[in-house]
Amino acid sequence: MNHFLLHLFVRGAGQTVCGKTIGSVRYLAPVLSIELIGGAAPCFLASILSSPGPFVYLTDTDPLGGAGTEVFKRIRGLPVGACEQIDDDRMVRFELGRDRDRVELVLRLFGSAGKARILGAESIIESLDSREAGRPRPAPTTPRAPSLAVADADTLIRAVETGPGQPVPGLTEELIGCFTADRGPVSPVDVRGLVAWRDEMIRGSCRFHLGSRSVRSGGVVPLPDPVPSGLAIRLGPFDRIDVACRRAGDFILESIRDDMIANHAAPLKRHLDSRRRLADDLDRDLKTADSFEMWRKEANVLAAFQSKIPPGSSAVILPDPYGSEKEITIKLDPALPVSDQIEKRFKRAAKLERSRDAIAQRIRAVREDIASLEKELDAVAKQGSLGDAIRSVDSAIERCGLGARLQTTPRDTRQSKTYRRFELDRMWFALVGRNNKENDEITFRVAAPDDIWMHAQQVAGSHVILKSHGAPGNPSDSILQTAAGIAAYFSKARHASLVPVIYTHRKYVRKFRGARPGQVTCEREKTIMAEPALPDTPARGSTPQ
Lower CB density within 10 Å: C or N end of the chain? Predict the structure, then answer.
């Protein structure tokens, strides 16, 4: 998304979204729809996170129509406290919640694919890319040059003179072309006019267009009159940024509507192609089954002239009793007696005759399935809205029993595991391995480097990983004591009154040469004495024995 357009959008969007409450958050690649509740009617923050985006806009109607997969459930019900553009790039940050529950929703709107993340004080709590969950919070990037929104005339002049090597974020060739006088081989840029127009745009006191030379509509930029020629996309004129962004967002969504529906309906299309291939195979089987009369005829002819066939013959020419003055050529197996070959032909003829009706019946059923699937896909194509089309696809997928094959978000093997999990308070939880293999998984695949690793000292037991929902700083002593009690409980020292438990940051835990599953060594560990006990909250998964 163009840096300057995003700046203008955030200035207006902040007044709209602040004070509202997050409702449902739904995702259907590449669209993320966030419901904002408050006021007379809800509104929706729509983000298109890949080509022809990334792009973000506010709309009165849900772009997904309630379809897609619900994500980011943790932020549902949290109030929006602030909305701001992060200066170093095309990123928008929304502060959610209050006090210790405060988290951030950050939308990254540049590159070929944007990102959406829920950030805590130190780590990524949740991301549409599920592999990022639990990783340390991204460090701020190097600040870029002053953007078009704040750059002075001298900065813009230097940027124009040095060319594309020193760009000002938000300043594009399309925009420069609007302020270039066509006079001779050298066309000076009216930077003073550009700055004056920029200031009017920020005040919201001038009409404008959105345009782009490329077909990638997510890169549209605000343009004044007259709009330069040769634009692949031109929208407007507009008086308000929110209306312009909504129009551009609807334009992008409409351009990818068919692709989104096709991607969502891919299981149906694959199923249809499979049924068509099956129908072709059954047609061939039916033609084979129709040959039962030929096999029975050969068997009868061989039986009639069996005494005249020399042993070891590879083929015979015999009179055809079913036709006048005709002969029939029959191939034989020299290694088998003629009587066995006659019996085999009778059995095959009987088997093909029996299968013929079954194959024909199955072909009718498969053809009915094909007609039904084609009808379903035709109905999807005729739906007026994206949401209606997606719901129609979901209904068809469910009727065909294909729901288990549909995945709208990236699969994360870590989330498919049922590790023991204990919620210690609103911000801290503990994961416990059930066996040596799971101990290695939670330690080296699930835990982030700065998570706390625990284990009962000098005895066999489960690895315990202490993680936060984004809480700043280190856990309190009471949280450490509770987690240590869990580590003691899931160890061979469970029946002792007090158990020494070692703990350190996960980054100081490693495997050693020749280590078996679950075996590790650690550094910089500390020891805490803990009573083997579980917190009041029961373990998720199975009840510990």
Answer: C
Give me 302's structure tokens. 């061989």
Domain end call among 235, 260, 285: 260
User: In whole angstroms, what is the distance from residue 106 CA to residue 10 CA?
Assistant: 13
10-residue averages of pLDDT along the chain (545 residues):
90 88 91 89 89 90 86 90 80 86 88 87 87 82 77 84 73 85 63 90 90 81 84 88 92 86 84 90 88 87 88 88 77 90 90 87 90 85 78 79 49 54 87 92 90 94 89 83 94 92 94 90 94 70 39
Domain of residue 91, residue span: 3-132
Does residue 201 form part of some domain?
Answer: yes
**Can you say how many angstroms the Cα of residue 34 is from the centroid of all Cα atoms in its chain?**
16
Structurally, the chain folds into a number of domains equal to 4
Q: How far is CA 102 from CA 81, 94, 222, 414, 479, in A?
A: 9, 10, 34, 25, 20
406 falls within a domain? no
User: What is the Cα–Cα distance from 106 to 100, expressed in whole angstroms?
Assistant: 18
pTM for this model (two decimals): 0.60
Residues 207 and 241 in one domain: yes
Question: What is the model's pLDDT at position 97?
Answer: 87
> Which H, E and C letters describe 391-453, residue by residue?
HHHHHHHHHCCCHHHCCCCCCCHHHHCCCEEEECCCCEEEEECCCHHHHHHHHHHHCCCCCEE
Identify whether residues 9 and 124 lie together within a single domain: yes
Q: What is the DSSP string of 26-69?
A: EEETTEEEEEEE-SSS-EEEEEE-BTT--EEEEESS-TTTT-SE
The full DSSP string for 108-124 is E--SSB-EEEEE-SSBE
pLDDT in the model for residue 120: 87
Q: How far apart are CA 310 and CA 288, in angstroms?
A: 30
- Measured between alpha carbons, how far is 42 from 49 in angstroms, rounded to an integer? 22
Co-location of 254 and 183 in the same domain: yes
Give just the sign of the alpha carbon dihedral 382, 388, 393, 397: negative
Domain end, chosen from 260, 291, 313, is at 260
The CA distance from 425 to 38, in Å, is 29
Residues 6+ apart with CB under 8 A from 451: 134, 465, 466, 467, 505, 506
Same domain, 225 and 320: no
In angstroms, the CA 209 to CA 2 distance is 14
Residue 397 lies in a domain: no
Do 162 and 108 fall within a single domain? no
**What are the structure tokens assigned to 418, written together?**
């049922």
Buried b / exposed e over 238-262, threshold 16 CB at 10 Å, is beebbebbbbbbbbbbeebeeebbe
Sole residue written with tokens 């094959």: 405
| Co-location of 326 and 432 in the same domain | no
How far, rounded to the nearest angstrom, does the alpha carbon of residue 264 sit from its chain's CA centroid?
A: 11
The structure tokens 């061989």 sit at: 302
Look up residue 297 and give its two tokens. Answer: 């005829």
